[in-house]
Design a protein that fits this description.
- The chain is mainly alpha-helical.
- The protein has a single domain (2-183, 240-270, 292-483, 518-551), classed as Up-down Bundle (Growth Hormone, Chain: A), CATH 1.20.1250.
- It is 63% helix and 4% strand.
- A hairpin with a 2-residue loop joins strand 3 (202-207) and strand 4.
- It starts with 20 loop residues before the first helix and ends in a 13-residue tail after the last helix.
- 53% of the residues are buried.
């Protein structure tokens, strides 16, 4: 059975149509690209027990965003190992193992959600699934570059386009599956009809002589509900948000599709080249493109490898943190100021559009780099990216003062352009590597370079969640200072002196404080991400310097002919 997966069995016969490799590459990348839709799981995962809103023992946003981070870390680590393994065993073997890991990771993660064991979700989706991501990511890249030596940028754009578009397809599966399995918790009545007790920050009611935990849904919480329901008191642990069952279903679907795609891989025979194509001579080629080859181990001894590592790492850092919280971010910046437009469905569509523009950027920028040159393409990414990231805090400030749809349109357009360049950076980097190091070991070198993605998977989410937490704490403290203590006591059943406990138990939130804040108080939610945006601009500036100083590899590192 394993022999069928080996490299010797997938060498293409004479006359094979190289374009048939594209569907196989897209099939795997569309499946593993659903990792970019992780933010669609966040609202359900942080309401696993409360269902309609977060309960005291529900997982926090930060804890579930880190699952996405772990998956990206193991993507990079497995790609670094799998890249060299790919050169030995071929893409079919690697693609098959990827299918087992990615599909199996969903199953293990779903068990973790059902049992409430967060570590199982980290192990399943993060570690096992992350290994599937890395192996699936590298399997088509080197293969397509060998099939399309005449159009390297376009080839890598095709290979990696699917990864950007995976979230777009996942959007039409994740939320529908969650809603199919969703069951609302028991409704106890309106707030004034239920006698609430507050202990250690939790809201409780007495039922049949026993204290049971409840969650209170206010007017500002309605938009976040998966199914319409009334304001009031709901009993914790009596419904299901449906996310575990959605995990099981998705795992089975992805496994089947990826396995079929892996068996569609073929590799060209030694010495093959497209009909009528000749490699460019030294005097005709672009200055940054070499006709020599650098061995996979020798590449790590060059400064160019580490410059490209920083370029990829920092370009990814600037976008991946935003991707992990995209749905939440859209809701927080515009949900309170433009609630008639930005509801849960709008925020979900925003994730869909990110995926679409991410995918478009991958094929557009990678193909354009064949004409612009790889270094010039990254000049555009970093220069324009700095300007756009710096403009977002201004947009957030303006919309909090003047809730106009104009600011929403600008924010939407700016972030979509950012994500075309984010995707374009991924799709262009393999061609950049082939230009600098040659094509012979580009698959393996690319795999090792993806450790930059693993690092960015830590830096980006860590920055955005940590800075957001600080901003939330400061915003709550500021709002509490404006609210009459007696009003606070009446609303939450506890005094301001218990604020930390109330915040930890999720009884006090910015939304609930705004319900009792003095008239004219500006909702601080739209500014929660301002500090992060400025940090991302600084990160892109460093990457710009690395790209500006890129030069060809010294001849001493070239392989001998």
């Amino acid at each position: 059975m394993l022999d069928i997966l080996s490299k010797k069995h997938i060498v293409a016969k004479e006359g094979f149509n190289r374009w048939l490799i594209a569907p196989a590459a897209l099939g795997i990348h569309l499946c593993i690209g659903s990792v970019y839709a992780w933010s669609l799981f966040n609202p359900a995962l942080i309401k696993r027990l409360g269902v309609v809103t977060s309960a005291a023992d529900d997982w926090t946003l930060k804890s579930v965003v880190w699952i996405f981070t772990v998956a990206i870390v193991f993507l990079g680590l497995s790609a670094a190992v799998g890249g060299k393994w790919l050169e030995k065993v071929g893409p079919r073997m690697v693609g098959t193992v990827s299918a087992i890991c990615w599909g199996g990771g969903f199953i293990v993660g779903g068990i973790g959600i059902l049992t409430g064991e967060l570590w199982l979700l980290y192990l399943g989706y993060g570690v096992i699934g992350g290994c599937g991501l890395g192996l699936g990511y590298v399997s088509p890249v080197g293969t397509l570059i060998r099939w399309f030596p005449d159009r390297r940028g376009m080839a890598t754009g095709i290979a990696i386009m699917g990864f950007g578009g995976g979230a777009m397809i996942a959007k039409f599966m994740i939320e529908p599956f969650i809603k199919i399995y969703y069951k609302a918790p028991e409704y106890l009545g309106a707030v004034d009809a239920v006698e609430l007790i507050t202990e250690s920050g939790r809201r409780l009611v007495e039922i049949a002589g026993e204290l049971r935990e409840v969650v209170v849904v206010g007017a500002n919480d309605l938009a976040g509900m998966y199914a319409p329901g009334p304001e009031g008191v709901y009993l914790v642990g009596t419904g299901t948000v449906g996310v575990a069952q959605a995990f099981f279903t998705l795992g089975a679907i992805y496994f089947v599709i990826m396995l079929c795609a892996a068996f569609g891989y073929r590799i060209p025979r030694e010495g093959w080249k497209p009909a009528g194509w000749e490699p460019p001579t030294e005097d005709k080629q672009k200055s940054m493109i070499t006709q020599h080859h650098v061995h996979i181990d020798e590449a790590l001894k060059t400064r160019q490898f580490y410059q490209l590592w920083v370029i990829l790492c920092f370009n990814v850092t600037a976008g991946i943190g935003v991707l992990g919280v995209a749905k939440t971010m859209m809701s927080e910046i515009f949900g309170s100021t433009l609630p008639h437009i930005v509801d849960a469905a709008f925020a979900s569509t925003y994730v869909l559009m990110i995926s679409l523009f991410n995918m478009i950027g991958r094929i557009f920028w990678a193909s354009s780099s064949d004409y612009l040159g790889r270094r010039n393409t990254y000049w555009i990414f970093f220069t324009l990216g700095i300007i756009l990231y710096c403009s977002i805090p201004y947009t957030a400030q303006q919309v909090s003062v003047n809730p106009s749809v104009v600011w929403l349109v600008y924010f939407y357009a700016a972030t979509m352009l950012i994500f075309t360049m984010y995707g374009g950076g991924f799709a262009t980097i393999p061609a950049y590597l082939a230009d600098i190091f040659g094509t012979k070991y580009v698959g393996g070198i690319h795999g090792r370079l993806l450790t930059a993605w693993a690092s960015a998977g830590v830096f980006g989410p860590l920055a955005i969640t940590s800075l957001r937490e600080i901003s939330v704490k400061n915003a709550i403290d500021d709002l509490v200072g404006k609210i009459d203590p007696a009003t606070f006591q009446e609303k939450f059943g506890a005094g301001v002196n218990q604020l930390d406990q109330l915040v930890t138990a999720k009884t006090v939130t910015i939304n609930k404080l705004m319900e009792i804040a003095p008239s004219g108080t500006v909702d601080p939610t739209s500014g929660l991400y301002n500090t992060t945006m400025y940090l991302m601009a600084v990160v892109l500036f460093v990457a710009l310097i690395m790209n500006a100083t890129m030069r060809p590899v010294d001849a001493k590192h070239h392989m001998k002919e």
